[in-house]
Amino acid sequence: MADIGALEHLLKPVQALTPDVSIDEVARRFLLDEHRAFLSLPVVDAVQRPCGLISRYRLQDIFMRRFGRELWGTQPVSKVMNPAPLVLQLGTPFETAAAQVTTRLQYPVTEDFILVDGAGRYRGLGTVPHLLKAMEARLLQRNQALQHTLEDLKQSQAQLVQSEKMASLGQMVAGIAHELNTPLGYVGNNVDLLRELSAPLFALNEALAHLSAYLGDPATDEEALAHALEAADAARRAVDAGTLAEDFRQLLEDTDYGLRQISELVGGLKDFSRLDRAPSDDVDLNDCVRAALLIARNNLKGRVEVRQQLQALPPLRCAPSQINQVLLNLLNNAAQAMDGSGIILIKSWADEAQVHLSVEDNGKGMTPEVLERIFDPFFTTKPVGEGTGLGLSISYRIVRDHGGTIRVASRPGRGTRFLITLPLRRAADAAEAGAAPAAPLQREIEHA
């Protein structure tokens, strides 16, 4: 595409008139093929400086009058020209020139505009249609540039969201690995103990096998048989059947308990991620709370007391893995807001049209300045390297995409409360469509 950043491409070389040219001569020139595309002709003085424009509309107005040609035909063009035409220098920026022309543009368009060089000498004419076409080309270029920028931004946003998801996944996997280590540890210990306890049984079995072999061999002498009997008896005495049975029972029960814990964690992780489910599903929001609590247990146990006040909820059609991500983010943020021990209170309730969920902590809270920016991308109060500043921004977008609202209230030294509201019908529509609803998200922030 040609460069439209300069005005030279708008220049149309048109021979200028002198002020003494007759109006009849101007009319004749307008009939020439080379001038058919122009609405006006330039008038210049002896040193090629513009002194006016004469438009064909002005000539038509004159000649349409009674005896107009007879009265005006021999008059010089200086009598009827526009002495104050629009004059632009060729070095004028395109945007400035376009603004000047369009500011003076009237309908119908009756005149062109004059282009001059740096010394103010006439160089040619510029036509309004040509200018408008150039403006359209410039607008197209800018739209294409904006489209490319938008695509790059979308790609960058997707990469950032994926990075945050991977960071959250890393934290979650670390917590799950820590949780799995405990039951895996004592299951492994129990296996070692079972191996140790079963050693005398294997020794007894081997001694009895030898004794059986001697008893079945007619050629066995009495001394070898006596040694086999003594070995079998010693192996039998080494096995305390009552104690061994009780130890086996206890170890197997403990091992079974550990395996159930591992199964619970794996099942919770599967429910949390919803890897085996459709992207959208009818779920009980309380189940999402329980799944998030199971995954966040490593960050909460030992110092944070979680209190639940969960009421019965109607099924909510949503993207459960995304809602779980929001809840895990809120729980982890609440835990990190407490320097020591603390309490997290989770409530859920519903009305005819909406499901509500609040997560409240008694941590250190936030100042009004922090509260105003809490949902901004990349904003974080955590030390460098400990947070991306995308967690709450992504949570905000997920709630928005479900047609919901998220509100936060906080007071320094008192704690923070997040309230999520998801409309039942709108959430279902958004989940099915996979896009944000038409109505904008209402994000409310309260300082107290």
From TrEMBL:
All copies of domain CBS, residue ranges: 10-71
Q: Which reaction does it catalyse?
A: ATP + protein L-histidine = ADP + protein N-phospho-L-histidine
| Keywords, sorted A to Z | CBS domain, Phosphoprotein
Provide a Gene Ontology MF annotation, just one: phosphorelay sensor kinase activity
Q: Report the residue ranges that make up the Histidine kinase domain in this protein.
A: 175-426
**What InterPro entries would the database entry show?**
CBS_dom, CBS_dom_sf, HATPase_C_sf, HATPase_dom, His_kinase_dom, HisK_dim/P_dom, HisK_dim/P_sf, Sig_transdc_His_kin-like_C
Please tell me which top-level EC class this enzyme sits in. transferase
Write down the EC number. Answer: 2.7.13.3
Presence of the UniProt keyword Lipid biosynthesis in the record: no
Q: What is this protein called?
A: histidine kinase
- Upper classification of the organism: Bacteria, Pseudomonadati, Pseudomonadota, Betaproteobacteria, Rhodocyclales
